[in-house]
Write a structure and sequence with these properties.
This protein is mainly alpha-helical and 159 residues long. It has 2 domains: 85 residues, no CATH class; 62 residues, no CATH class. It has 11 helices and 2 strands; from the N terminus they run αααααααββαααα.
Length: 159
Amino acid sequence: MEQWEKEAKEKQKAYKRLLEKGNRNRMLKALPELHEEAFSKIDCLQCANCCKNYSPRFKNPDIKRIAKVLRIKEGELVARYLKLDNEGDYVVKQSPCPFLAGDNTCTIYEDRPSDCRRYPYTDEDVLLKRVSLTLKNATVCPATFAVLEKLLELEGKQA
């Protein structure tokens, strides 16, 4: 296990406290810059943990768009690749994602689901609003870990 993954697991309580009790406005203001900084150092193609371990939600517009690009019927896309999860959302049937290529690129990148486009939400208020998702993402995505570490520093300096 890489060092950041271990550290992210050890710091779950600190991250939870930060996300629930930190200065929300200050953190929101800092997110765009912290997001850019994290992704200037992290190459998703070296990792692809998100694609290897989790599934985005496939909303109806995603299904329509992807089926059209793959030149298959929407029902075939659903039958071949997707299943309903316990929340009633379509997700991929298997991990890793069937659209993940061997070199960690996405075969439907230009038409990927909205969840994939937005992941890991490090430049959005979702990072603060959906604490359990952010805590999970911190152990999957090195960019989420990096942003949370910087937010801890920021809040520590301001405390």
